[in-house]
Amino acid sequence: MALKGDRTESIQSISYFMNETATRGGLAVMSTASSGVGLDSAAQLATYTWASGSYPIGILAQDMVNIDQTKYHINQYKDEVQKGGKVRIIRQGWVVTDMIYPGQTPTAGGIGYVGHSGYISTSQLGGDARNRAVGVFETTKDEDGYARFYVNLPNIG
Prior knowledge:
Blueprint (H helix, E strand, L loop, with lengths): L7 E11 L8 E6 L12 E3 L8 E5 L2 E3 L14 E3 L3 E12 L13 E4 L5 E2 L11 E5 L9 E6 L5
Parallel strand pairs: 1-3, 5-6
Antiparallel strand pairs: 1-7, 2-3, 2-4, 4-7, 7-11, 8-9, 8-10, 10-11
């Protein structure tokens, strides 16, 4: 589990679908966008995979799973969503997550940037929108690798 229940969600978005399995708590980026409002457009896609032209949209709040629904039910108590479904993205608020770029140790007050594969990085990784600050670490990592992160993307997505 990459996202603990201890969090505050000030601004959320339900404008995106996700076509891959993913663990909640990572930084999602826009894969493709629709035109107009796009609330129910399948072209409005979120992903953990960075590509040219992507921009950060917030923290994924649900687990994306790929199960045979003729045999098993989605576990709604774990807030699971079937691959291809609509996801909830936290655009402003704080979360406790372990999706911190491997080998990096955040400091309290340190800025978080877009990392690869849904990770939050403590340093700027690329010469494009990944240089954009997406929030601030409010704590250092605990013994389990979790840190509190304040995401602030209210004007994105």
